[in-house]
Amino acid sequence: MRLDSSNYDPMLGWAHGAQMVAHNMQGHAKFLWIMKGMYRANGGCGYVKKPDFLLRVGDPNNRVFNPSAPPPVQKFLRVTVYLGEGWSREFRHTNFDQYSPPDFFVKVAIAGVPADEVRKQTRAIVDDWLPVWDESFEFSLRVPELAVLRIEALEYNTTGVPDFGSQTCLPISELRNGI
C-alpha cells in the first residue's frame, strides 16, 4: 500500500506477471529510467510481451512463478566500464566543481527480481573530464528476461550527495556481446 505520490517500482508488477498499460511517473528518477529501459526491448513502443514462464497456462504441476524464490542462475553478465567522454562539451567547466575538473565514478546495477538486484561501482577518477576506469563487473542472473542493466555516471561530491552526470537503462534480453 502506498501513501505518497512518488514513482513506484515497475519491477514489482512485472515480476508477478502484471501487464501494466499506464505508468503514473512523478519525475525523472530511477524507476522511470527502469521503465523506459524495459520498453527499449520492443523499440520503445511501450509494450513488451511477457516472458514465456509468466504465460504458462495449464502447467501440469500447477506451478506459478514466485519472484521471491527464483530458479538457479541462468546467465552470467560481464560489464566492462572503459571510459567516459563528452561531458566537457555538455556541461560548463564549473558545473560540478568550482575550481577543478570533476571526479566521476560509475554505478552499474541490475534491476529485476530481488535475487538479481545488485549494485556495484567504479572508483572515482579525480580531476578528469575524460575518466578512464577499465573496470569489469560480473553479475549472475536468475531471471534475465526481467532484468534491466542500469548504468549511472556521477560526480563525487565531498558533501556526500553525488552530482548527476548521465544514465541509461538497457534490457538484458537485448544486450549482445561487444562494445
TrEMBL record:
PROSITE patterns: C2 (PS50004), PIPLC_Y_DOMAIN (PS50008). Pfam families: C2, PI-PLC-Y. It comes from the Eukaryota. One of its GO terms (biological process) is phosphatidylinositol-mediated signaling. InterPro entries: C2_dom (IPR000008), C2_domain_sf (IPR035892), PI-PLC_fam (IPR001192), PLC-like_Pdiesterase_TIM-brl (IPR017946), PLipase_C_Pinositol-sp_Y (IPR001711). Residues 2-54 form the PI-PLC Y-box domain. Residues 56-179 form the C2 domain. GO terms for cellular component: plasma membrane. One of its GO terms (molecular function) is phosphatidylinositol-4,5-bisphosphate phospholipase C activity. This is Phosphoinositide phospholipase C. It comes from Lithocarpus litseifolius.
